[in-house]
Amino acid sequence: LSQPLTKRRGDGTIGVNFSTSLLEGLQELKYTWVIGDQVDTKDSQLTSCQSTFGQYITNLQTMVDGYNYIFFHTTAIEQKLIEEEMNEINKHIQHGEDNLTWKSDGIWSYIETLSNLVNDLEQRVRRVQKNLCDMDDLLLTWVQQPIYERKEGKKDTLLNLEDRNERLKKVYSTINSDGEKIKCMVNENKTLLRINEVTQDWLAYLEYLDSLIINGLVD
């Protein structure tokens, strides 16, 4: 119980730093208490703390999973856009590792504050990435639907060009409509990432999106 709440791993991720053996021991004590065997005062106090530790561990694990998702599943461009928020989160984590143990006061307040920061960022990052997937889906529809088709749908017939003007108008209309949807998603991402001013990092992100759209058009 004199250990910090979390630990930093070699790859930069974090983990809940609670002894597995201690958790198993607390469970055994609970069983002993349930069947009515005598336990000394110290063991009784530990047993009564099991539910508290369980609550701490459950919420910490959720926070850890969210942090590690952000760590592993964001691109270098996305990481630059959330760098300030991640730095703030890392300060809280470092504070906990340096100043708090499982016996400290104020553990729940610390866990709650850190969890709110991490969970909020994780949800926004996932939404940003969902928008990016939706953009990819729109671009894919441009590729999957041919502008011109062969007469009667046969491979050995000529292309049907009699209604080519109408077909082109329909394709242009679809691309324009999808373009407006993409603009809305980009603006939403800007809000989700809390971009208040145009920076080089945001411009790099826009260039990345432009490259995706250009590839869709070329395909």
UniProtKB/TrEMBL annotation:
Regions annotated as coiled coil: 111-178
Domain of life (superkingdom): Eukaryota
Pfam short name (any one): DHC_N1
Protein's UniProt keywords contain Membrane: no
GO BP, sorted A to Z: microtubule-based movement
One cellular component term from this protein's GO annotations in UniProt: axonemal dynein complex
GO MF annotations, alphabetized: dynein intermediate chain binding; dynein light intermediate chain binding
Alphabetized UniProt keyword annotations: Coiled coil
Sequence ranges assigned to domain Dynein heavy chain tail in this UniProt record: 2-110
Protein name per its UniProtKB record: Dynein heavy chain tail domain-containing protein
Taxon lineage: Eukaryota, Metazoa, Ecdysozoa, Arthropoda, Crustacea
